[in-house]
């Protein structure tokens, strides 16, 4: 990308993002902790009261469209830019909309991935939004760095972890990454925190317990809450229907809503 073209794109990012009140990045230090599930359900929960967008910046593993019921959508653009897909009250943009089919791999080096994220930030017609949720890929690589450095006025980051030690170790890295690049940390969510046995009703701590809260204390950031395991989350994600829209009155739904209210600060 030429310098002039890059500078114009950066200027366009400032203009486009200036129409969005709150920009929240959802980060995990490692894969498999349910970060995209949290991103999707956070966006759909907020969409009940606010104007919301959801940006999938996982270029090599874009799963947001599947969970949002938009996996058959292709990229649409006009003279003014890229038109986001929309479902369940949420505007969505993802690399998946550019792929020929769901099995096409994305074999791109870091600079190409960063340039595409810049284009999503600058050229997508997000319009006036109250919240833009940014689902980052696992880790603290190029995509996360691009968002942290290029997104003006980012509200903050939400770190998703599970209670097990290996996930907590990586979540602390994600917190320290956010602090290093000047991105405020809104807090840590402990996902997959216990399962109610369907036979006896007792709670089973499959991945341990309380690790997220301990990690939050160690790195001096807020602990936002715990999300228990619920099999319906799997079926909801696979069917493209938000758990928080379909099952808001369950234990998980109640816990998630409490987390949402902490993130938005009572708006």
Walkthrough of the structure:
The longest helix has 16 residues, at 165-180. The protein is built from ten helices and twelve strands. It has helices spanning 3-17, 35-46, 64-67, 110-123, 142-150, 165-180, 211-218, 231-239, 243-246, 251-264; strands at residues 20-27, 52-56, 76-78, 81-83, 85-87, 90-94, 129-135, 156-161, 185-191, 195-196, 203-204, 223-227. It has one domain (3-264): Rossmann fold. With 267 residues, the chain is of the alpha/beta class. 39% of the residues lie in helices and 21% in strands. It has an eight-stranded mixed beta sheet with strand order 5-6-2-7-1-8-9-12, sandwiched between helices. The protein has a two-stranded antiparallel ribbon with strand order 3-4. It has a two-stranded antiparallel sheet with strand order 10-11. The mean pLDDT is 89.
SSE blueprint and pairings:
Elements: H1 3-17, E1 20-27, H2 35-46, E2 52-56, H3 64-67, E3 76-78, E4 81-83, E5 85-87, E6 90-94, H4 110-123, E7 129-135, H5 142-150, E8 156-161, H6 165-180, E9 185-191, E10 195-196, E11 203-204, H7 211-218, E12 223-227, H8 231-239, H9 243-246, H10 251-264
Parallel strand pairs: 1-7, 1-8, 2-6, 2-7, 8-9, 9-12
Antiparallel strand pairs: 3-4, 5-6, 10-11
Helix pairs in contact: 1-4, 4-5, 6-7
